[in-house]
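Appendix B, example 12.
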Amino acid sequence: MNKFWIILFHTYMNKFKTKSFIVTTLLTVVITLALTNMNNIIEIFDDKGGKEKVAVLDETGQLFEPLKEQISVINKDLQLTQFDGSEQEAEKAVEDGDYTGVVQLRFDNKQLPEATYKAMSVADSSLYLDFQTALQQIKTMLAASQINLTQAQLQQLYEPVSFEKIALEQNAKTEEELNQARGLVYVLLFIIYFAVIMYANMIAMEVATEKSSRVMEILISSVSPIKQMFAKILGIGLLSLTQLAVLLSVGYFSIKRNLSSLEGGFFDAFGFGNIPLSTIAYAVIFFILGYFLYATLAAFLGSLVSRIEDVQQMITPMTLLVVAGFMIAMFGLNTPDSPFIVITSYIPFFTPMIMFLRVGMLTIPVWEALLGIIILLGTIAFLAIFGARVYRGGVLMYGKSNSFKDIKKALQLTKKE
């Protein structure tokens, strides 16, 4: 067991001190800080202080004040100025940068408002939509007054229909709980996806790198293959947890600082305040089992290649499995109880993402979640035993090796030992 810990510690420290890991971690921290402080960064580069100024040419003499009132509700950072000059003068002011754009207001033949928006570029559709929404409100009120509708009648006309959703299933999740669960599932799916893509690839690269340096011949003669394989898997696993802990901590404190003015805590701000502890426990379990599943697969696939250049080709099918599971889970966010989602949740390579999707979104029997966990444990055990045999022979194979036929060769080498 002492040799197991030596390999584990060596794998962890060796990768931890590499320039690629340090640079990747620092770069990801910078990106995390940038994303969580995007509003502050935009304000720094915004020479207008976040305010947009738009000139208004009101040909009717009646629409400017109602428009200004509606815009103040829709977009508080949008400043409207009534322009007294001509259309050509307003356009010149926009070209000189005094205004973001100019809006011309007029009545159509039915005495209802219509407008034209002019700007240097119409790529920013947000301002256009703000004006369109505000003018639609004004048009509705004017049209209502023309047919003698009172304000109460107009409000009754546009009042949303009462439509209540009631789940008949016992202990079914409410709409609020579903929204919370959907957010947590969405976040975890991305974490599982990127963790598997990044760190399973790292395990395969680690094995291939040691083979290319012929260190493996010495290791395999002194340490059993299953100990060696799982020492590397755990070493990279601890490394991944270290990097994830750094990124999540930076993101958490950065977001918490930016949300300091909001009521409630960090999780309440994102709607995660009432997530059941059982759902969080399942999230941890399926994340760990998903990592070990793909890490074990990556380790023995990496043992089949002796050149780093061949690693990507060898693990491509595994990567496609992760992508397929992720895409199925994205589809299942809207239909978590469909037969297709239920069936795929019991396919081992999809279970970490899709079974957790069902656990988070639905109230399923405990035995279904436990069955998913048992399937994962059984698959990991099978891959560990089978992978150890492939690993033992695979690490002794050199030369060009990028075909899955090499698994048979690796097993034959294992039998000869």
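The mean pLDDT is 76. Residues 175-212 form the longest helix (38 residues).
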